[in-house]
Amino acid sequence: PGGLITPIIRHADEKTLSVISNEMKDLASRARSRKLKPEEYQGGTTAVSNLGMFGIKDFAAVINPPHATILAVGAGEERAVVKKGEIK
Description:
By secondary structure, the chain is an alpha+beta fold. The chain folds into two domains: about 1-45, no CATH class; about 45-88, no CATH class. It is built from one helix and four strands. The chain has one helix at about 15-30; strands at about 45-50, 70-75, 80-85, 85. The strands form two sheets. A two-stranded parallel sheet has the order 1-2. A hairpin with a 2-residue loop joins strand 3 and strand 4. The longest helix is centred in the first third of the chain and has 16 residues, at about 15-30. It is elongated, with a radius of gyration of 17 Å.
């Protein structure tokens, strides 16, 4: 028994980033130990896949049905930007 488990953050639009972060850490920990209840991983519509912490800049994330979308998050990088003809 294994496979991908995608915990759900419900009503994320009504929560602060710190609340979402704490909830995400708790859900991830319990997902790793297979302690999630079905309602904590069923019914999602969008997933976030973050490989940026491993230094990966970009990748193609695979949608996990029944989700409709997935956001692939890669590592940030510094880039030069031109503003009013000057490189910043």
